[in-house]
Amino acid sequence: MIIVATAFFVLLFLGMPVGIVLGIAGMIGILDMGGGHFLAMVPDRFFSGLNMFPFLAMPFFILAGEIMNRSGLTLNLVNFAQALVGWLRGGMAHSNMLASVMFAGLTGSATADAAAFGNTLVPAMKKAGYSGSYACAVTAAGSIIGPIIPPSTLAIIYGSLMGVSIAGLFAAGIIPGLLLCLVCMCLIAATARRLNLPKDDRGPSLARILKEFRHSLLALILPVFILTAILTGITTPTEAAALAVFYALFVGCALYRNIRLRDLYEMLARTALITGVIFLIIASASILGWWMTFNQIPQLIANGFLSVSENPAVVVAMIVALLLFIGLFMDINAALIILAPVLAPLTLAIGLEPVHAGMIIILSLTISLMTPPVGACLFVLASVTGERIESITRSLWPFIVVQLLVLIAAAYWQPITLFIPRLLGLAG
């Protein structure tokens, strides 16, 4: 066990891609356990780790988001959000948060949100008088709503690995995602005068709202269609994702007519790149996961937690603290794949409902996307905008604090995550 842990952290520290680190660590563990002839099982474990039908939903959702973004529908969502709340003090910050919720329903990706709005909203906010670090902080805080509001790639991964209803996890993310947006907008409103945030000269206008709603309607229909189809059981998440791609292509090619064959090639290549990275992590983690299961490491960790306390509230606090800490240093997809099989049995042991437990784990890891030193959204925004990570982080801390409050509330008050799944019969 020590040699595997040492190899894992040394290779990670040296900067080797996490997917390769997981595979090498798993192979070292298997080699140490049974010698060279045990390595014959590695290819089988590698490919069987991906042999799950729900995983097909991920590339489809990623491609649908790419097409919608390229067709210009993202800008329509931003304009609609600006019409709704742009007249408030700090209006562009408010509209950034609101647009993140709408955009989350298209992609399910925090880094896609950060990249898209880093290229569009951050320059517009800076031009309007916001500091670059504050504009990036608002964008980072809004971007983590992406993996919470359905469709969510993290929910697909967790549900597939742990046998938990993906539709239930999708439904469980709706209220927490909206709460993340709400608390951030409250923070913006509470600090707007002190920070002297700009205010749009134009007041609220029903005519403008209706105009922008009409322009953004094609984009707004998609997440509603996806959710309705999945939550009512009409389609599986994979089938809904494929239909989302068809819809996005129809809108971009037939209605807007601004997607060329060359654009389609670029979007397919980018989708393959993003999916390939995630699938490499999943496949490699299955090797390490088999070694951990064979050596009963999940049970040892669960027993270690329960030896500290059997009080469910204390155990939940330890789980959240562990996930937030691990998220500081590790890619969240890898952390989810490694830790979910370890922590899920522990959550069952203390009586947590599986969908609720899954959402606690997903929420905890998602918040780490905007925390240094390896917060993916921070790096995306820094590279896109040229702002320093240190300055973004200084402006971001208040948003991290209020979003941690949402995490704590969701962890200890089940209705936040389970109200909608229970209403739809998707959770116990």
Please describe the structure with a list of short key phrases separated by commas or semicolons:
2 domains, mainly alpha, 21 helices, single chain, 428 residues
Verbal overview:
- The chain is mainly alpha-helical.
- It folds into two domains: about 1-50, no CATH class; about 55-425, no CATH class.
- About 75% of the residues lie in helices and about 0% in strands.
- The chain is built from 21 helices and no strands.
- It has helices spanning about 1-15, 20-35, 40-50, 55-70, 75-85, 90-105, 110-130, 130-145, 155-160, 165-170, 175-190, 205-230, 235-255, 260-295, 295-310, 310-325, 330-350, 355-365, 375-385, 390-410, 415-425.
- The longest helix is centred in the middle third of the chain and has 34 residues, at about 260-295.
- The radius of gyration is 22 Å and the shape is globular.
Kindly report how far apart the N and C termini lie.
Answer: 37 Å
Oligomer: single chain
Number of strands: 0
Mean pLDDT: 83
- State the domain count: 2
Q: Report the uncertain regions.
A: none
- Rg of Cα set: 22 Å
General shape:
globular
Biggest sheet details? none
Strand content: under 5%
User: Approximately how much helix is present in the residues?
Assistant: over 70%
Order of helices and strands: HHHHHHHHHHHHHHHHHHHHH
Structural class: mainly alpha
Total helical segments? 21
